[in-house]
Amino acid sequence: MDKENFKDELRKILDGNNIGTMATVRNDKPMSRYMYFYNDGLTLYTYTRKGTYKVEDIEKNPHTHILLGYEERDGMGERYVEIEGKASLPENVTPDIDEVLAKAGQLYKKLKGEDDMQAIRIDIDEARIMNDGGNAPAPVEL
Hints:
Layout: H1 3-16, E1 19-26, E2 29-36, E3 38-40, E4 43-49, H2 53-60, E5 63-73, E6 77-88, H3 95-101, H4 106-113, E7 117-130, E8 140-141
Antiparallel strand pairs: 1-2, 1-5, 3-4, 4-7, 5-6, 6-7, 7-8
């Protein structure tokens, strides 16, 4: 699959799946948790409370690993994506980030209203689509 077709397929998976795992590094060990993800094209966003371990982890080491999607398809296996990227912590929730995260519903609005919400932006460095029919899960740099 060429890079543009890969990006199209990756966007479809990101557009259709919001729940996945996000791993950060804490004390030189991986720490993984389930998160809700929202995307703007090939950029992922999620959020958490300020002062959480996730925020501390990202401040010390921005590298993250994300598993997202798990689509059951007839005769083709369960397709999902592995993502390696760099997380950042935007200081301000700009209108474009707010629009993406507003899909998160009541908890997002509550945390934002309490001024206890920290947005997390993930820029994808590399991704692999797994269990994608006959396509090998080769990493594609973005």
